[in-house]
Amino acid sequence: MSTTTVRNISAQQKPLQTGFTAATTSQEIMKGVDLNGKIAIVTGGYSGIGLETVRSLAKAGAKVIVPVRSTISEEIFSEYAGNVEVASMDLLNPASIDSFSAQFLASGRPLHLLINNAGIMANPLYRDARGFESQFATNHLGHYQLTIRLWDALKKANGARVVNLSSLGHRFSDIIYSDPNFETTPYDKWRAYGQSKTANILFSLYLDKAGKELDIRSYAVHPGRIIDTNLKKYMSQEELIRMGALDADGNINKNNGSFYKTIEQGAATTLFCATSQLLNNIGGVYCEDNDVSAVVDETADIIKMTNGVLPYAVDFNNAEKLWDLSYELTGVTL
User: Fold this and answer.
1) With bands split at pLDDT 50, 70 and 90, how would you rate the model's confidence at 273?
2) DSSP label at 146?
3) Sign, CA torsion 274/279/283/228
4) Which of 46, 80, 144, 193 is flagged as catalytic?
5) Which of 68, 76, 88, 134 is the most buried (most CB within 10 A)?
6) Count of CB atoms within 10 A of residue 311's CB?
7) For residue 233, what are the β-bridge partners?
8) Are 164 and 200 in contact, with CB atoms under 8 Å apart?
9) pTM of the prediction?
């Protein structure tokens, strides 16, 4: 006898019909947006859609802090050099996260936008010093700890937003609560990636409830499929060809042109969630293509799934379980 899971899903998780599309660019989203006096932190803001996000925010007048693991050339921010700071932080190193956060808090500045953009995908099994699986540790636990440590600065903004970069890849796995670090479960790089991306959505959901009364709203974002980023570095050319991302000669498959986004299109939904007035009274939602996503059927064929969010990823009961697990693993909570 089969049973149906009863989901606790927000009524806000439905499209707004914003008028934007998958082809909308960061420039179109930011047209007329004035961020003078605002302060933002963007993890992974030195390449790909993170870099486009930083440039767009800085161009609109925001002061943007970019945490990095190792030395980078600040020339990439030269056009907006006065509006961009680079600081040291490693998402796999809890002490590094605490040090970065303490330095920011010591500056006394409010934090209006926290964009948790950095991430890794489909890498071989690697564990951090705590024994945590690297995709879950980097994509979720590191950003969880960073957000909690910066909570006082978010409160000080008197109106802040947290944007967590998730993915359609959440379809590959719910949270493996009994073994999130693959200690006994055979490691599957896509299942591990899917778990971490589901975590980004559930974290956004719980965080929004925690911050709503303080005017701290939170969103999860699927940026779309973008080939020209470092996220694919662990994937072989053969895998990318098999996926249809590259043609037989190893070039971007132009026959799938409408299926993939440019970096400017990929950064657009992040910027939409960070700045759009259409979301002023909405939070804790998963967005894609510059709108709130629809919830798809629990029994959807994930291989054919091209958009939408699965119910387990926007179930508040699930979000509570993940919050408790994150606290158990990190020892950090509000």
Assistant:
1) very high
2) H
3) negative
4) 193
5) 134
6) 19
7) none
8) yes
9) 0.93
d(CA 282, CA 273): 10
- Residues 91 and 137 sit within 8 Å (Cβ to Cβ): yes
DSSP string, 15-39: ----S--TT--HHHHHTT---TT-E
CA atoms of 179 and 181, how far apart (whole Å): 6
Residue 260 designated active-site: no
**In the beta sheet, which residues pair with residue 115?**
42, 163
Question: Tokens 């899917």 belong to which residue?
Answer: 194
Residue 301: alpha-carbon gap to chain centroid: 24
Which residues, including other chains, have CB under 8 Å from residue 277's CB and lie 6 or more apart?
none
Average pLDDT over every residue of 9-32? 97
Question: How many residues can be counted in the chain?
Answer: 334
**pLDDT at position 72, please?**
81
* CA angle (174, 210, 288) in 5-degree steps: 50
pLDDT at position 5, please? 82
Q: Parse the chain into domains and list their residue ranges.
A: 26-226+263-328, 230-260
Render 186-238 in DSSP notation, one character per residue: PP-HHHHHHHHHHHHHHHHHHHHHHHGGGTEEEEEEE----SSSGGGTTS-HH
Query: C-alpha distances in angstroms, 251 versus 2, 23, 112, 166?
Result: 46, 21, 40, 26
How is residue 170 written in tokens?
A: 């959440």
CATH classification number, 26-226+263-328, choose in 2.30.30.100, 3.40.50.720, 3.50.50.60, 3.30.365.10: 3.40.50.720
Residue 156 is inside which H or E element, if any? helix 151-156
